[in-house]
Amino acid sequence: MTKSIIIKKNGGPEVLELQDVTVGSPGPDEIKVTNHAIGLNYIDTYHRSGLYPLPLPSGIGLEAAGKIDEVGSDVTEFSKGDNIAYASTPIGLILNKELYLQKMLLKFRMEFLTS
Fold first, then answer.
1. For the chain, which domains are there?
2. pLDDT digit string (tens) for 23-82?
3. 3-state SS, one letter per residue, for the chain
4. Alpha-carbon distance 115 to 108, whole Å?
5. Which of the four pLDDT bands, split at 50, 70 and 90, describes residue 115?
6. Which of 31, 72, 99, 108 has the greatest CB tally within 10 Å of its CB?
7. Using an 8 Å Cβ cutoff, are 5 and 17 in contact?
8. Whose CA is closest to 82, among 110, 58, 104, 60?
9. Closest-CA residue to 4 (of 24, 23, 18, 22)
10. Angle formed at CA 65 by CA 35 and CA 39, multiple of 5 degrees
11. Given this model, what pLDDT does residue 14 score?
12. In this predicted structure, what is the pLDDT of residue 60?
């Protein structure tokens, strides 16, 4: 089961909840990703506290990197198994699987991480 960090109300770290979520199959222009690295930044504390309001409930997190599990029928730039990274949107990246539009992803070679 996929796990996600969700906030249902604003507050301190105690409002962070680990929840099971369902991630379906990708739509025509979507990509299903397994995240292997997820950024947690100071802005996430602002979202959690309500200083930068989000519609609740919401996930938190704005950047991650992972590997593609499945691609939609209209995806042409990516393939299953590609290493990808993304940042900025959508909010709520602190989960281990998610669907993203192909225009939001950046493909990279693993050598960049290991050299």
1. 2-114 (3.90.180.10)
2. 889 999 888 988 888 888 899 999 999 999 999 999 888 888 889 999 999 999 899 999
3. CEEEEEECCCCCHHHEEEEEECCCCCCCCEEEEEEEEEECCHHHHHHHHCCCCCCCCEECCCEEEEEEEEECCCCCCCCCCCEEEEECCCCCCCECEEEEEHHHCEEECCHHHHC
4. 13
5. very low
6. 31
7. yes
8. 110
9. 18
10. 90
11. 97
12. 85
Tell me which amino acid residue 30 is. Answer: E
Contact by Cβ (8 Å): 26, 99: yes
In total, the chain counts a number of residues equal to 115
State pTM to two decimals: 0.79
Residue 94 contacts residue 60 (beta carbons within 8 Å):
yes
Token digits of residue 108: 């990279």
**Token reading at 13:** 């770290």
Joined together, the tokens standing for residue 52 give 């930068």
